[in-house]
Amino acid sequence: MSVGTSNAPGGRGTGRVPAPRHGDLTGLGIDPDELPDGLVVADEHGLVVCFNAAAARITATAPADALGRRLEKALPLEDLEGRRWWQLTDPYGGLAIRVGQPERNLLLPGGREVLVSARYVRAEPTGPVRRVVVSLRDTEARRRTERSHAELIATVAHELRSPLTSVKGFTATLLAKWERFTDDQKRLMLETVDADADRVTRLIAELLDISRIDSGRLEVRRQPVDIGAAVGRHIQAYVAAGQPADRFLLRVEQPLPGLWADPDKIDQVLSNLIENAVRHGEGTVTIDITATASPREGEEAGTSVTVSDEGPGIPEESMNRVFTRFWRGSKRGGTGLGLYIVKGIVEAHGGTITVGRALGGGAEFRFTLPVSTPAYLA
Question: I need a labelling partner for 74 at 20 to 30 A (CA). Which of 97, 190, 274, 341 fits?
């Protein structure tokens, strides 16, 4: 453990640091160097008595260079306006009722940004500060999250602009020049407006799904699901829309265990996977439904659905990015959010999903769900 040495209460001298009181890390058998965040502790005199490995990594300062120095020298911080942080906050001489500083972005020498929070430890509520405990965190993870949110906002803005521009343009034209158009022209414009409104609705639904997945609030309302019939309905819809019937091959292994899942969300998964195979793949789209082992411990039975095509497939180097946000297999439309949502839905059911190369050379998506039979029916 990176701690200072002292004979006196303040950490001065050459002896060992006094035995920790109840609640200290050493008293719990925890080495500060095992903590994932940077930990810096200064004693009642403002001298650093603990500077763990994470703090050394984040600040690029060796513990030996920090221990025994004054806090403001060992950890020189400035706020985003260039003011010296320790002089500004004055933990030892400020208001006696303060208990610390909330997490905020501060700058190390050289301009590196870190997240810093502090706790002022007092023996009694308004007594002198006995210790200042500082937590340091790298900002890279937060920056990645912020970049991801910025990308999501940019993608949504781009995807919304096109249909909304179309809706606005056609409705404004119809309102201004209604009498000049034939009935067929009016119908075409209104059908376009209707299709674009559906596109906006789908995008908003995707955003809501992402929000629920990211926050762990995606609800699954389980009911008995006939997975074979659900796939059949999707195939019939494509055939009715003009796809040749012989482009689809549905194979259902019997008997299948009874599947309890959320029918709407399973329809969403099937719709996305089959649409990807039709739009981005080639040749026959094959859907295999089989009984398999459950992906969840404590359950024996599961149901597996495999959707494959005979197109060019997914490049090997892209396999590990397929289920991330904004991944697109081609430039032919889409927000790149569908497969991210599919993975979230499958995992919310306790299932798993994988991607690979089909025997015919195309892409192959396989998801497996536990049957999740309610206890009162088991």
Answer: 97
pLDDT value, residue 268: 92
Q: What is the pLDDT of residues 313-330, one digit of tens each?
A: 888 888 888 888 767 665
CA-closest candidate to residue 278, choices 251, 248, 306, 304: 248
Tally of CA atoms within 13 A in the half-sphere of 242 that contains its CB: 0
Backbone angles phi, psi at 44, to 5 degrees: -65, -20
What are 276-311's pLDDT values in tens digits? 899 888 899 999 999 998 877 767 788 999 999 998
> Which residue, 121, 129, 123, 116, is CA-closest to 45?
129
Q: How far apart are CA 257 and CA 303, in angstroms?
A: 7
CA distance 32 to 11: 18
Q: What is the pLDDT of residues 209-246, one digit of tens each?
A: 888 888 888 888 999 999 999 999 999 999 998 999 99
Cα 102 from Cα 157, distance rounded (Å):
34
Residue 6 has pLDDT above 50, yes or no: no
Cis bond upstream, residue 255 (ω within 30): yes
Contacts by residues 87-94 (CB-CB < 8 Å, ≥ 24 positions apart): 89/118, 91/118, 91/120, 91/129, 91/132, 92/44, 92/46, 92/128, 92/129, 92/132
Contact present, 104 and 118 (Cβ < 8 Å):
no
Tell whether the model's pLDDT for residue 186 goes beyond 80.
Answer: yes
> Which of 95, 102, 77, 96 has its CA nearest to residue 87?
77
Task: Find the DSSP H helices in the chain.
Answer: 53-59, 63-66, 71-74, 85-89, 140-177, 183-215, 227-240, 263-280, 338-348
What percent helix, strand, coil does the chain show, rounded to 5? 40, 20, 35
Length of the chain: 378
Q: Is 124 helix (H, G, I), strand (E, B) or coil?
A: coil
CA distance 116 to 138: 9
